[in-house]
Amino acid sequence: MANTAQARKRARQADKQREHNASLRSELRTAIKKVAKAIESGDKAVARAVFIESTSTVDSIADKKIIHKNKAARHKSRLSAAIKAMA
To answer: What CATH topology corresponds to 5-84?
Structure first.
């Protein structure tokens, strides 16, 4: 347990930031799942539209350093490749 006022405040700030980051990570996962679901549905046009929409979410979360920029690029690349592979 924090003993000083400064340490107590930093603990409060850390909790608040952790919750905020967790919500952003959840938003990221949801965006990726939306694209995956659109790919499974088989409609390439819809999948492409959802991918473009989700790309901005992934990029903004990477810009805030919630995830690494290379991880964001990897997710986008794999989803894009899956869309291109659709018949």
So the answer is: Methane Monooxygenase Hydroxylase; Chain G, domain 1 (1.20.58)
